[in-house]
Design brief:
2 copies of one chain form a homodimer. With 404 residues, chain A is α/β, with parallel strands linked by helices. Chain A folds into 4 domains: 159 residues, Molybdenum Cofactor Biosythetic Enzyme, Chain A, CATH 3.40.980; 47 residues, Alpha-Beta Complex (Molybdopterin biosynthesis moea protein, domain 2); 88 residues, Molybdopterin biosynthesis moeA protein, domain 3 (Beta Complex); 74 residues, MoeA, C-terminal, domain IV (Beta-clip). The first copy, chain A, contains 8 helices and 28 strands. In chain A, strand 20 and strand 21 form a beta hairpin. The longest helix of chain A is centred in the C-terminal third of the chain and has 19 residues. Chains A and B meet through helix 3, strand 15, helix 4, helix 7 and helix 8 of A and helix 3, strand 15, helix 4, helix 7 and helix 8 of B.
Chain lengths: 404, 404
Amino acid sequence: MRSVQEHLAACLAAVGPQPPLEVVLADAVGCVLAEDVLATRDLPLADVAALDGYAVRAADVATAGPAAPVALRVLDEIRAGSVDPTRLPAGSCVRIASGAPLPLEADAVVPVEQTDRGTAKVEIRTAAAHGENVRPRAQDVRDGEVVLRAGERVGARQVALLAAVGRGRVTVHPRPRVVVVSVGDELVEPGATARPGQVYDANGHALAAALQDVGVATYRVAAVPDQRGPLRETLEDQLVRADLVVTTGGLSHGSNDTVKEVLGPLGTVRFDNVAMWPGRQLGVGHVGDGTPILALPGDPVAAQVAFEVFVRPAVRAMAGYADLYRPTVRATVTTGWYSPAGRREFVRVTLAGSPQEGYRATPAGAPGTLLLSALARSNALAVVPEDLTEVREGTALSCLVLDA
Amino acid sequence: MRSVQEHLAACLAAVGPQPPLEVVLADAVGCVLAEDVLATRDLPLADVAALDGYAVRAADVATAGPAAPVALRVLDEIRAGSVDPTRLPAGSCVRIASGAPLPLEADAVVPVEQTDRGTAKVEIRTAAAHGENVRPRAQDVRDGEVVLRAGERVGARQVALLAAVGRGRVTVHPRPRVVVVSVGDELVEPGATARPGQVYDANGHALAAALQDVGVATYRVAAVPDQRGPLRETLEDQLVRADLVVTTGGLSHGSNDTVKEVLGPLGTVRFDNVAMWPGRQLGVGHVGDGTPILALPGDPVAAQVAFEVFVRPAVRAMAGYADLYRPTVRATVTTGWYSPAGRREFVRVTLAGSPQEGYRATPAGAPGTLLLSALARSNALAVVPEDLTEVREGTALSCLVLDA
């Protein structure tokens, strides 16, 4: 049997960061930068007004106060988006909008509220120091400066900066496209009528949702019967749009080993019993032209656990993240159970508590059962080490936090 | 001046949860349920095999062991998706796939590994108790049971359960559609050439990204000049697809009050100076046929802060969440600064530390400046109360955590 660590290492070795691609800014949102972004101009590009008011020479208003206003001639109005290329003569000013560049020789802005709002002539009722209410050129970013580094995620605050320095396109690791294929003769689509013996395909929908939460593009294929022909055709069809294929089911110990039989000739996939519970048989390798493939068990609880333990880190690696894993916390369990020897057990638990008072983990459903109702109310996976067979009330376990 | 709390209350009062809508399962992902979901069948629907093996009568194999195998006749093979409607006679068994329903009278499953894998006759090498390796009917969900409650978010684990109980459609608060409009004569699209005085539109892109991170559908309109006609036309055009409109800019104290002038006749929007920094003038109300609108400042740092403080909670309320706010932590600041009197200041900080050792907040850039470069490297907003004017090294402040 392979250890969980060995199989995880194999999954991560099978994938790599998506090749860098230049995309428009809107498509970069949520992606990881694949370039250091250099500013190609100053931000702001000139000394600009920090608020609406009058651009003045500070020296002209040095003596101004509420009781001793200074009158200045208003030469012009500089609205946002325009510039005044003339020099400001002494004794004069211009009305200026927040964000507009100051005329030459102006070195301060008096807020409109500190004036009589005159249009030809204005009374200035406060002194202004050199540079007051002015955002100096390059205060935010200097031409040539690295504004964001490769490896940073492009979120809203990074987009604001990229846009402000004029970047309409940026090079990122593009969102991986993941094709999800559920295999099983028994599977029918939710909403359809299930005959006796049939079950609804939970894995296709649940894995697509889990991938969507990671932020990747997902294509869910309707469940494929456990037969070589249809599975082979489906995989061949889907490879054109897949950066990664995830299958569930079709790994029966019994007469049907469809996934193994089909994947054998299509690529280099190895299947192992992995020392974990739930889930046991797992596959990893490549198909077609080197597209990575991860094969998960058919049981929907086991598939979700395998997703969290193996697929999510692999997908994050493809998306270019350095940090691949869910946060973990230590929690004491509120009730005991027996855990299988020689296997790492992932128990669906509800976490309660806080960093200050500590966390408590309560199994959602009996740990040995595979209940979707329990999975749906859990918010973490408690990890029982391979050599621990008796978990007691109060035992401290590491827990993967599933809901932030 | 209105307080931050008053303006937030007005924003939340202007919106409400999206009217419930029945959608297909794939479209429900990431939405909040607007119905209690009842199971309309048991899960599993019958006693099913928990693993691949032989379905037996436990009484027949009570004496079986490695040294004393019991031979049974193999009547049939039940593959996944099929059923065997016959009763199992004593002394016989059926080969059964994991998940397949047991034949009548069978009450245990012997794992294939504990047999000689016979096809006509099989040697059973272990005893099996009544119910062993069987998932009893309704073990997971009972017909008529509430499986998920209104108000729960539909994530991967909830989708697995909904699919498994056969729900192809579900009633949710659909994703709000938010239209983002930046207003300003000075704005040009990133990637285009900016003439002197022009600046790149950061707000449109950054707010669209921020909304995308909240999980809503966003339509970004290219920046609109600060003129009544174009702004009115844009708003009228966009209202058909907007559940919420967010504007930035066009709120100048100076000669241009375009947003106010246009919104006046179009709806009922009030504008207030809100006692906060950055950002001051903010609008809230309705336009057209009652579409809520939130007006934010034009400065991109102020707009992002206003997004976090007002828009994000409002959008989450529309999406049906009960929990509207970012998590907060207390952090001690690593350096002091002066904070404006009578205003709640939101300072962009980088948080470091842990729940155990405590958190430290370091301002990203001087708190009084509005730098996008500092915003991009911050991961939290430290909140300085209205009456605190001197923040000292070691002062403990509440911080909104922006990055999970």
